[in-house]
UniProtKB/TrEMBL annotation:
Pfam families: GFO_IDH_MocA (PF01408), GFO_IDH_MocA_C3 (PF22725). Residues 133-256 form the GFO/IDH/MocA-like oxidoreductase domain. Signal peptide: none annotated. GO terms for molecular function: nucleotide binding. InterPro entries: Gfo/Idh/MocA-like_OxRdtase_N, Gfo/Idh/MocA_Oxidoreductase, GFO_IDH_MocA-like_dom, NAD(P)-bd_dom_sf. Residues 7-120 form the Gfo/Idh/MocA-like oxidoreductase N-terminal domain. This is Oxidoreductase domain protein.
Length: 348
């Protein structure tokens, strides 16, 4: 039985929108139908490049039965304006990280999906790595014993030109902040997915290299988890030349370290027969995270998420990362910002 691919539209025409378009075109269950952005010149050029239709309005896409799903690649603070009407119309939305820049806006998006029957999926492709999934499973089965220290490090570099190339990067209104909510949020999500959402955070934030931006380029936060363990999150776009993402999960019976998609440490007080093969198979990786230049980022994770959303629609099931799951990383980031702003410990 032949099943027609899911018709997608891309909202936005920037660098991430191009990643979305490429991912859709590489997914057998999906088909790129249209693109929309306010600038007719930009959307026409994008449509010509990727072989799709240039839509004249959001309303035309909402009314088009050929469009069953959209990917949102606009500035973060404009996600709700696009996501809500599509979800209310029963369309599916794959929303780039973060879902939005405030919990009120995130909740508007989630509520629109519930109200209209649309499917909402988040973009947190670091969860797809086999190494990360192996660590999460080990946490859930108790191999680490009591978790004592669970931390994330995202020490990246962005040039002054990166920030000056747009009117919204590093702004509170449309970017939601700086290094943490934009570049760091993937690792923030992965950490809380593996170790759980912290109960308390205390943080400092500063502009140390890019003084022209409104928000921070450097953050350091301490965490206290419900299980009693502690941890830190360090995020920066001020750390030249940019380093790999590092996640450390440490318990009183074992330790693991992820660097990008590589499992570089996997040791336990009670070894298991499969540990040697896990170390051998997962110590190598191919993930490109764009630590020094966003153009170095891989689009393969987006392809997997587009495929998952397409199959979810065809099979009538939820996507791998539903909207409620994608909310948690925003909640943690905003708690860290509140602590840095007020100088107080913040409970989540």
């Amino acid at each position: 039985m032949n099943i027609s691919p899911i018709g997608f539209a891309v909202i936005g025409t920037g660098m991430i929108a191009e990643v979305h378009a490429q991912a859709i075109k590489e997914t057998p269950e999906a088909r790129l139908v249209a693109v929309w952005t306010r600038s007719a010149e930009n959307r026409n050029a994008f449509a010509a490049k990727f072989g799709c239709r240039s839509a004249e309005s959001l309303e035309s896409l909402i009314a088009d039965p050929e469009i069953r799903a959209v990917t949102i690649a606009t500035p973060s603070g404009a996600h709700a304006d696009v996501a809500v009407p599509f979800l209310e119309a029963g369309k599916a939305v794959l929303c780039e990280k973060p879902l939005e820049v405030s919990l009120d806006a995130v909740d508007r998006i989630v509520a629109a999906a519930e109200r209209g029957g649309g499917t909402l999926a988040g973009v947190f492709q670091m969860r797809l790595q086999r190494a990360a999934q192996t660590v999460k499973q080990a946490v859930e089965t108790g191999r680490f014993g009591r978790l004592v220290s669970c931390s994330a490090y995202i020490k990246w570099w962005r040039s002054d030109e990166y920030y000056s190339s747009s009117s919204w990067k590093g702004s509170y209104k449309l970017d939601g902040g700086g290094a943490l909510i934009n570049q760091g949020i993937h690792a923030v999500d992965l950490l809380q997915w593996i170790a759980g959402l912290p109960e308390e955070v205390s943080a400092f934030a500063a502009k140390l290299s890019h003084t022209m931006i409104e928000a921070e380029d450097t953050v350091a936060a301490t965490l206290r988890y419900a299980h009693g363990g502690l941890g830190v999150i360090e995020a920066a776009t001020s750390a030249w030349p940019g380093d790999d993402v590092r996640i450390e999960i440490v318990g009183d019976r074992g330790s693991a370290t992820l660097i990008n998609d590589r499992l570089v440490r996997w040791v336990f007080a009670d070894p298991q027969p499969e540990d040697e093969s896990i170390r051998a198979e997962l110590s190598q990786g191919t993930l490109k995270v764009g630590s020094g230049d966003p153009r170095g980022m891989s689009w393969d994770g987006h392809r997997v998420l587009v495929g998952d959303l397409s199959r979810a629609l065809l099979e009538g099931r939820p996507p791998m990362i539903p909207g409620g799951e994608a909310r948690r990383a925003v909640q943690l980031v905003l708690a860290i910002y509140e602590s840095a702003r007020t100088g107080r410990t913040v409970r989540l």
